[in-house]
Design a protein that fits this description.
Number of helices: 3
Distance between the termini: 69 Å
Strand content: 15-25%
Order of helices and strands: EEEHEHEH
């Protein structure tokens, strides 16, 4: 019986809401997610196609997207928000520009 874990981290984009996407690491061996605010995901899973077997130290693992979302909402550090980005469609951008002009 083996007590070791060999992860298969791969980078994934996850859609959280209508216009919010995040990039995080997903382990295909255990179906775990990493918090992109807690660790630097470029070191753990730099590619969308190649697997990485790095086991990050002092990181949090989540079994579901909902758990990860809840954790990210309750994050306490101010600088973490800069790592998130919002995807807008062209129609939303045009509506915002029209509202600013009026």
């Amino acid at each position: 019986m083996s007590y070791s874990w060999e992860p298969k981290w791969i980078r994934r984009k996850i859609k959280l809401a209508e216009s919010i996407e995040i990039e995080t690491c997903y382990d295909e061996a255990t179906t775990l997610f990493l918090c992109p605010l807690c660790i630097d995901i470029t070191k753990v899973c730099p590619s969308y196609t190649d697997y990485s077997n790095i086991i990050p130290e002092k990181s949090l693992y989540f079994f579901s997207i909902e758990d990860l979302m809840h954790h990210m909402r309750t994050h306490g550090r101010e600088g973490d928000v800069s790592k998130l980005y919002i995807v807008q469609t062209e129609s939303e951008e045009m509506e915002e520009e029209e509202a600013e002009e009026e």
